[in-house]
Write a structure and sequence with these properties.
The protein has 336 residues and is mainly alpha-helical. The chain has 14 helices and two strands. The chain has a two-stranded antiparallel sheet with strand order 1-2. A hairpin with a 6-residue loop joins strand 1 and strand 2. Helix 3 runs parallel beside helix 5. The protein is globular and about 55 Å long.
């Protein structure tokens, strides 16, 4: 059977760290650009992607810390939640991103943390699931966002963690994977969210690591990249979603790491900097973060990249500072 795939050249460039840092700075400073205006609806996450990319490249000092913090706090609403940008509605996704930004910059305050935790608590339903906002959409992404945000601000006791975990487990499929809600198709992005949520909830032992690990390992195709579902093209972002799920399950050694590294490096734009979803496509901050995060997780650029935490997708040094080195979430061992 012929799989959908892309071609990777025999020779790929080395990691272009300086180019990537310049690309991220261009996004951070290019407020007059069309792309900046059109991305307002997800700006909080965009700031998180850019900041974390710079952080793991050891270039955080090139970012406007005071300006970022001043902007983030304008996005917190009276109910404690954060929106993508000022005058947008607060949402679970952007509340996690705001918490990650403020903690990365060591600018979290008790008042901000209390408000965010209160907002998250208000969105948990009787079955343990979480709404994204007041409009009622349910998604396992929101379960992860809720538990991750509360774990980072040390307020997990504000929600029913066992019920949250049971809802996530109810989304497990016969193939070992997870979907958006019970009965939904398994998807690699959702699997990361569910595995991460169960890791935080202390329920990861309820997952069949071999069955799920097999499904995830099957996402690697000939080019070395991962797809998110069977019969799809590879996409660089799954170098994070799939790889870090395998890491949390202790099955990262089940895939060809050298071929994955080559695929990630082939997705760079050596002229402008940044990473694309596939070689030759347009680069963007989203894929740039997850390309760098994948390389960090693989340990293939230790001389230029900081270690990434596989649960929270933040620099390991930040997670250790927040949670302490002895916390189970701060240390996820490698099995090779």
């Amino acid at each position: 059977m012929e799989f959908k795939d892309v071609e990777i050249p025999d020779e790929v460039p080395a990691l272009q760290k300086d180019k990537h840092a310049g690309y991220i700075k261009m996004w951070a400073e290019g407020k007059e650009k069309f792309e900046y205006a059109m991305s307002e609806y997800l700006r909080m996450s965009g700031v998180y992607w850019c900041l974390t990319a710079m952080d793991i490249m050891k270039c955080r000092d090139q970012m406007d810390v005071d300006g970022i913090v001043a902007w983030v706090v304008t996005c917190q609403h009276n109910n404690g939640g954060f929106s993508a940008a000022p005058e947008h509605d607060p949402h679970m996704l952007y509340t996690l991103s705001a918490i990650q930004i403020l903690l990365t910059l060591d600018k979290m305050t008790p008042e901000i943390a209390d408000g965010a935790a209160r907002f998250i608590k208000s969105l948990q339903l009787e079955d343990g699931s979480f709404q994204g906002d007041k409009w009622g959409e349910i998604d396992t992404r929101f379960s992860f966002c809720a538990l991750a945000a509360l774990a980072l601000v040390k307020k997990l006791d504000m929600v029913d963690v066992p019920k949250a975990g049971e809802f996530v487990l109810s989304c497990m499929n016969f193939d070992g994977g997870f979907g958006v809600v019970p009965g939904s198709e398994s998807h690699a992005g959702q699997i990361y969210c569910c595995v991460g949520a169960l890791k935080i909830a202390g329920l990861l032992h309820r997952v069949d690591a071999d069955l799920l690990g097999w499904w995830l390992a099957e996402r690697q195709i000939g080019s070395g990249g991962f797809n998110g579902r069977p019969e799809k093209l590879p996409d660089l972002c799954y170098s994070w979603w799939v790889l870090t799920s395998l890491r949390m399950l202790g099955r990262m050694h089940w895939i060809n790491q050298e071929k994955l590294t080559k695929f990630i490096l082939a997705c760079q734009d050596v002229e402008t900097g940044g990473f694309a979803d596939r070689p030759g496509d347009m680069v963007d901050p989203f894929h740039t973060l997850f390309g760098l995060a994948g390389l960090s997780l693989l340990g293939k650029a230790d001389d230029v990249l900081d270690e990434i935490n596989p649960v929270f997708c933040m620099a390991q040094s930040v997670i250790t500072r927040i949670l302490g080195s002895s916390n189970d979430l701060a240390q996820v061992p490698i099995i090779s």
